[in-house]
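Q: what sequence does this backbone want?
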């Protein structure tokens, strides 16, 4: 599978959070070795895509979408078994649904550090060679060492001499080289193990799909080394909508595409080139952000005072031309001077009391200004996004898949369609624009991935039992096609899986927990098996562990038979 031309066929797959998939050779949580028995099981069922959530180093955090490096693989995923360090820490029985990633990582680091010390000469030699091949590791290793030393504090809070990355790297690699090379050595091990997995997948005919977060943690080695690539006084987020009246603030600095363009997007090229060592396809997280992104002052706690970046804004002269003084409306909290003599209108400004109290004549002049450049802005955003995505495609032969969920503006949806970018359709949200009803299988986008759940949603059975109108779901997924109504959770889940596999979508990739037929706790208590609940504290998420070993899961004849039949009948057994 050196070229990926054959990937664009009707396929089924599985999405996993790697630390949740424990193997009999894992150390406490799922690791790179877990991908071997997972691949064997997937191949047996007829799945030909395995999708992973990001594997980036999260430091003292938990979310893989808020990593301390855009490149580095988390040492948590290194397989001690593959290193021939046969250290066991648990019985075969999995008793708790929660991993403790910081503790597990520290135990792994302790074991590998001992191995590194005992084989220091050879290990440092291997690390030095890896460093020459992958120069991003200079900043990562220096940052990671200091990050540990200062217990995860933001790099802007470090002693002044370490805030300058060039000076810090020079000091670390001259005075503390042995410590720094240990962090490089960890990346070398992870690289070797994961790139071997890719070769194994190619041998058996399964594709591995990775994930590329668009945004980067403010406290990361990338922002530390290249603050010019980020707009540091802004944070990314999402505008208010039906799900959140005040919008979302994510804390990540906004990408400075102008600065990145001056380097011919070298940082992105390096990222994609590195990912390609491990994956055949990749998910572009929040693809809308390639066109425009909701940007908020970095210290704001709500997204109400944000705007779409980049934006022309309304020039001071355009207010004056209509006999309006922009400073008056800025003082009323309706607009904001985001660059000199250019203003943006706040979200839903027209709902504010200060707007409603204006004279009708003033409102009649002010409101049209808020829509003055919409067509020009959309044209500019579309051109900018398409340019970026085209450049991405030139950097790698991996197949890009767009995460295009949420409120996607028409011009972006049209652009992605014309570019034939593979999107994603979540069954519970894929409905008729006119009636709001579920749409039948044959009306799904062909160039998309159909899914029952994502890592950010409830599981399929939680949605089925606890969200929305149950009767309408029964009528659509069962009555409509003449199937008897389900009498158990398992029958309901089989019906949903049958639907999602039958859709006309090119790929149908399901969350691992949504394939857990016969696992009673997942079926009866799906809320306990969720990966992430957006808007809740980081440490309460991303620790999920599946309640049985992958080898035991893979040995269940009835489950395998049922899934194999569903994949075969949907003609996805590529």
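A:
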């Amino acid at each position: 599978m050196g070229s990926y031309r054959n990937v664009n066929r009707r396929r089924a797959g599985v999405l996993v959070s790697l630390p949740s998939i424990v193997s009999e050779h894992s150390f406490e949580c799922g690791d790179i070795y877990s991908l071997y028995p997972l691949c064997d099981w997937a191949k047996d069922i007829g799945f030909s895509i395995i999708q992973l959530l990001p594997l980036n180093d999260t430091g003292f955090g938990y979310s893989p979408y808020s990593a301390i490096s855009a490149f580095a693989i988390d040492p948590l995923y290194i397989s001690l078994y593959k290193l021939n360090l046969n250290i066991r820490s648990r019985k075969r029985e999995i008793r708790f649904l929660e991993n403790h990633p910081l503790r597990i990582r520290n135990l792994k680091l302790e074991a590998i550090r001992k191995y590194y010390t005992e084989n220091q000469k050879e290990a440092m030699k291997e690390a030095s060679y890896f460093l020459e091949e992958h120069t991003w590791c200079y900043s990562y290793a220096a940052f990671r060492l200091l990050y540990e030393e200062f217990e995860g504090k933001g790099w802007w809070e470090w002693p002044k001499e370490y805030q300058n990355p060039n000076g810090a790297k020079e000091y670390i690699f001259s005075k503390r080289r042995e410590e720094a090379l240990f962090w490089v050595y960890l990346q070398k091990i992870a690289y070797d193990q994961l790139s071997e997995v890719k070769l194994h997948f190619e041998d058996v005919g399964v594709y591995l799909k990775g994930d590329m977060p668009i945004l980067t943690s403010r406290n990361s080695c990338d922002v530390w080394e290249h603050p010019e690539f980020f707009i540091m006084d802004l944070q990314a987020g999402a505008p208010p909508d039906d799900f959140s009246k005040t919008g979302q603030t994510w804390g990540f600095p906004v990408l400075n595409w102008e600065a990145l363009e001056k380097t011919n997007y070298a940082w992105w090229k390096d990222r994609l080139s590195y990912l390609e060592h491990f994956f055949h396809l990749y998910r572009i997280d929040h693809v809308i952000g390639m066109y425009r992104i909701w940007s908020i002052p970095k210290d704001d706690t709500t997204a109400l005072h944000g705007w779409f970046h980049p934006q022309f804004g309304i020039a001071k002269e355009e207010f004056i031309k209509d006999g309006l003084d922009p400073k008056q409306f800025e003082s009323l909290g309706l607009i904001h001077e985001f660059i000199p003599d250019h203003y943006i209108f706040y979200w839903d400004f027209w709902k504010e009391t200060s707007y409603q109290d204006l004279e009708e004549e003033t409102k009649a002049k002010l409101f049209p200004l808020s829509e003055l450049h919409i067509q020009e802005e959309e044209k500019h955003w579309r051109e900018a996004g398409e340019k970026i995505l085209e450049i991405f495609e030139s950097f790698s032969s991996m197949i890009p898949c767009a995460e295009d969920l949420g409120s996607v503006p028409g011009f972006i949806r049209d652009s992605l369609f014309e570019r034939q970018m593979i999107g994603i359709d979540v069954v519970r949200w894929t409905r008729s624009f006119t009636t709001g009803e579920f749409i039948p299988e044959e009306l799904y986008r062909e160039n998309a991935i159909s899914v029952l759940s994502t890592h950010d949603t409830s599981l399929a059975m939680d949605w089925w039992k606890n969200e929305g109108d149950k009767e309408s779901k029964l009528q659509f997924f069962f009555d409509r096609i003449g199937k008897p109504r389900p009498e158990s959770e398992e029958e309901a889940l089989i019906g949903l899986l049958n639907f999602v596999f039958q859709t006309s979508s090119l790929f149908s990739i399901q969350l691992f927990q949504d394939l857990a037929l016969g696992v009673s706790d997942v079926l009866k208590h799906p809320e306990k098996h969720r990966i992430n609940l957006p808007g809740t504290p980081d440490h309460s998420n991303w620790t999920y562990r599946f309640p049985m070993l992958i080898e035991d899961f893979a040995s269940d004849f009835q489950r395998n038979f049922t899934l194999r039949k569903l994949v075969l009948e949907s003609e996805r057994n590529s």
